[in-house]
Amino acid sequence: MVANQKFFKRDGVRKNTAWIHKHYKEYRGKWIVLNEGILLGNHYAI
Predict the structure, then answer these.
(1) Residues contacting 38, CB < 8 A, separation 6+
(2) Per the CB 3.0–4.6 Å rule, which of 15, 38, 39, 40 could disulfide with 33?
(3) Residue 32: predicted pLDDT
(4) Cβ 37 vs Cβ 10: under 8 Å
(5) Residue 1 vs residues 7, 10, 17, 28, 38: alpha-carbon distances, Å
(6) Are 33 and 40 in contact, with CB atoms under 8 Å apart?
(7) What is the DSSP string of 28-42?
(8) Are 8 and 37 in contact (CB under 8 A)?
């Protein structure tokens, strides 16, 4: 199970990184909250 947990954690990091690469211009210099490539909150909600 530990190996599977590590895989999912890495997969989430990859999804977050892809999201950041796609949306960095829109949110540059702002606070964001991501979970597995899904925006959960931003500078307006925090």
Answers:
(1) 15, 19
(2) 40
(3) 95
(4) no
(5) 10, 14, 25, 37, 24
(6) yes
(7) TTS-EEEETTEEEEE
(8) no
